[in-house]
């Protein structure tokens, strides 16, 4: 129904597990829509509650803090990205130049991430923002989900590059997340930095996310193939 006073959509109290899950998904969907408009730092529980049509206290029935909302959104976005990654990674080749193959994998990884700014944004603030202000219970649930997602990504990489050992594939998957976390904020500078980059003497420091990430991922994959090859 629509509240005539504040003109936002309101909901009756969720009674069933299905209704509660629908409410939970609505909160995450609203948070994702907000992050398409603003950085993580500007997302507030008050505005999220307004957009989803719930009192702030009701949002807190589902997520204990703003950061808990974002951690759940991160897991959802990460899982969805891995679903899409299955379709874009090149298949394993029985022969051919190893360098050409790992560079194709790096290019495919990069293209999939360029197309998914939400997951890049959440990766980049996962340790510095999302993991703060949550209970040990939420933190444990998030870390277990992260292990599962990293293991799945490692399996995807090993399928594309069977020369990688299991340990090497895990390290390549973890390295990909570290690379995104470092490259994303550097390639999305503030307005002040954009002004500075107009100076030709400083412009060389301006990085393009696509090319910078692909180069870093190629180096990570080459290193993992060298240090942790399949035996």
What is the CATH H-level superfamily of the largest domain? Tetracycline Repressor, domain 2
Number of domains: 2
The residue ranges in which pLDDT falls below 50 over 5 or more consecutive positions are 1-11
Q: How many beta-strand runs?
A: 0
Class per helix and strand makeup: mainly alpha
Question: How much of the residues is beta strand, in percent?
Answer: under 5%
Quick check: average pLDDT?
91
What's the level 1 CATH class of the largest domain? Mainly Alpha
Element string (H = helix, E = strand): HHHHHHHHHHH
| Morphology call | globular
The residue fraction in helices comes out at 55-70%
CATH hierarchy: architecture of the largest domain: Orthogonal Bundle
Global Rg: 20 Å
Biggest sheet layout: none
**Gap from first CA to last CA:** 62 Å
Count of helical stretches: 11
What is the CATH third-level topology name of the largest domain? Tetracycline Repressor, domain 2
């Amino acid at each position: 129904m629509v509240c005539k006073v504040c003109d936002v959509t309101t909901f009756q109290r969720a009674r069933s597990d299905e209704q509660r899950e629908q409410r939970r998904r609505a909160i995450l969907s609203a948070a994702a829509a907000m992050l398409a408009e603003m950085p993580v730092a500007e997302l507030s529980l008050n505005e999220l509650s307004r957009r989803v049509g719930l009192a702030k206290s009701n949002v807190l029935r589902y997520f204990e803090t703003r950061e808990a909302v974002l951690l759940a959104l991160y897991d959802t976005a990460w899982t969805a990205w891995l679903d899409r990654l299955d379709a874009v990674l090149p298949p394993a080749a029985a022969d051919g130049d190893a360098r050409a193959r790992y560079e194709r994998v790096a290019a495919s990884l990069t293209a999939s991430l360029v197309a998914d700014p939400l997951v890049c944004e959440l990766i980049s603030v996962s340790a510095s923002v999302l993991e703060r202000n949550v209970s040990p219970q939420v933190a444990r649930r998030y870390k277990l989900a992260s292990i599962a997602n990293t293991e799945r990504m490692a399996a995807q990489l090993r399928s594309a590059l069977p020369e990688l050992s299991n340990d090497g594939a895990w390290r390549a998957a973890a390295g990909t997340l570290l690379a995104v976390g470092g490259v994303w904020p550097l390639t999305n500078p503030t307005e002040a930095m954009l002004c500075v980059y107009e100076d030709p003497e400083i412009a060389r420091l301006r990085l393009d996310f696509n090319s910078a990430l692909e180069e870093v991922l190629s180096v990570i994959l080459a290193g993992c193939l060298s240090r942790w090859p399949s035996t």
